[in-house]
């Protein structure tokens, strides 16, 4: 499935990233909430946009989007395919154009065809390329709560639109990896109370917030569709873990951190974090979730606050690059590291114990 031929030169990536981060930094992003999402009879997803750029997309000849990344090459990513499908479904619901409907169903067909049923009964969408993210090196094939969650949301809506029973049967095995610990081939990091679900299993706890929250929305969709109480327990565990982890992601009630305080979130990720929090707050009625979402609204920032976030992002993001020596890496080197079983060239050590990291942070407003 991989195609890493002739990836763009690292210098081109670096210049593009610097331009985007320094000169195109913005406190808004063209993504909006869809309040029609959630009920069992709804085809809407929780977020929607008609203005996304899709700059990393490389479409194949069959109309399936691939991701182009310096450290992976050109690859098929199930979450990206599901997201492209959900956006097209949103287009169809708003404009009733048949081309968007067909695009959505094309992605559903691809996801159905590439589902893997493991020997433990789990239905998963494996990522068949190696990835290095900070101190975390994952060797193909691996699983991700982010991919699993977005695919679940796409297939639930595919089932609602088409009524194809095989999609519903496939969905029944998709929650199993949320019950399995990362060390056992799942995506779960259990906490003293509840759990977090990992976008990159083995990453420092509590991991990447938007991927985790996308997986919670997938579990919610699956529970609403099937009524399975075991899925509801997994969702509730995740909400408990989310509430416990929000202080780690919170920067002074102004902004969100990426990962376990790796660096300030880029504006698009922060905007997405806030919208996903708002969606989960609406579905659960949890006031702490809506409290963080409101605190993270960029519209609340003063001019001084905006300067603090902008400078903080530049400093923390480039410090992370130096810490992880990202300029030395490309797709071929990542594959070599994975084949040789070597450790990534990062100076930081991963934190694997949620019990160790979460008590260090105070709650919002404390």
Task: Characterize the structure shown.
With 366 residues, the chain is mainly α. The protein has a domain of 230 residues. It is 48% helix and 11% strand. The protein has twelve helices and 14 strands. It has a three-stranded antiparallel beta sheet, covered by helices on one side. A hairpin with a 3-residue loop joins strand 4 and strand 5.
Which value, in Å, is the CA radius of gyration? 20 Å
Strand order of the main beta sheet, please? 3-4-5
Number of DSSP strand runs: 14
Main β-sheet description: 3 strands, antiparallel
Topology:
Layout: H1 10-23, E1 32-33, E2 47-48, E3 57-59, E4 65-69, E5 73-75, H2 78-95, H3 98-113, E6 116-117, E7 123-124, E8 131-133, E9 136-138, H4 145-162, H5 165-171, E10 188-190, E11 195-197, H6 209-226, H7 229-249, E12 250-251, E13 255-258, E14 263-264, H8 267-284, H9 287-295, H10 303-324, H11 331-340, H12 354-357
Antiparallel strand pairs: 1-2, 3-4, 4-5, 6-7, 8-9, 10-11, 12-13, 13-14
């Amino acid at each position: 499935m991989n195609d890493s031929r002739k990836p763009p030169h690292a210098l081109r990536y670096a210049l593009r990233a610097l331009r985007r981060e320094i000169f195109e930094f913005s406190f808004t992003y063209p993504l909006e909430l869809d309040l029609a999402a959630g009920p069992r009879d709804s085809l809407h997803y929780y977020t929607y946009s008609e203005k996304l750029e899709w700059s990393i997309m490389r479409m194949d000849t069959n109309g399936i989007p691939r991701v182009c990344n310096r450290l992976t090459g050109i690859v098929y990513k199930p979450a990206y395919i599901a997201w492209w499908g959900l956006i097209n479904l949103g287009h169809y619901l708003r404009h009733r154009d048949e081309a968007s409907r067909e695009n959505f169903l094309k992605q559903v067909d691809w996801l159905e065809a590439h589902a893997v049923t493991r020997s433990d009964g789990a239905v998963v969408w494996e990522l068949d390329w190696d990835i290095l993210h900070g101190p975390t090196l994952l060797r193909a094939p691996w699983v991700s709560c982010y991919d699993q969650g977005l695919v679940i949301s796409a297939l639930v809506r595919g089932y609602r639109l088409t009524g194809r029973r095989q999609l519903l049967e496939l969905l029944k095995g998709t929650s199993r990896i949320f019950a399995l610990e990362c060390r056992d081939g799942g995506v779960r990091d259990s906490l003293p109370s509840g759990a977090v679900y990992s976008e990159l299993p083995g990453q420092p706890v509590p991991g990447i917030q938007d991927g985790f929250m996308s997986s919670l929305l997938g579990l919610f969709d699956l529970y609403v569709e099937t009524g399975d109480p075991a899925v509801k327990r997994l969702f509730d565990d995740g909400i408990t873990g989310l509430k416990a982890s929000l202080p780690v992601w919170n920067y002074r009630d102004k902004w969100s951190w990426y990962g376990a305080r790796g660096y300030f979130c880029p504006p698009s990720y922060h905007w997405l974090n806030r919208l996903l929090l708002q969606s989960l707050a609406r579905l659960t009625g949890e006031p702490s979730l809506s409290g963080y979402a409101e605190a993270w609204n960029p519209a609340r920032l003063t001019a001084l606050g905006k300067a603090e976030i902008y400078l903080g992002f530049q400093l923390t993001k480039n410090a992370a690059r130096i810490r992880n020596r990202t300029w030395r890496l490309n797709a071929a080197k990542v594959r070599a590291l994975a084949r040789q079983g070597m450790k990534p060239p990062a100076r930081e050590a991963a934190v694997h114990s949620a019990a160790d990291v979460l008590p260090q942070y105070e709650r919002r407003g404390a």
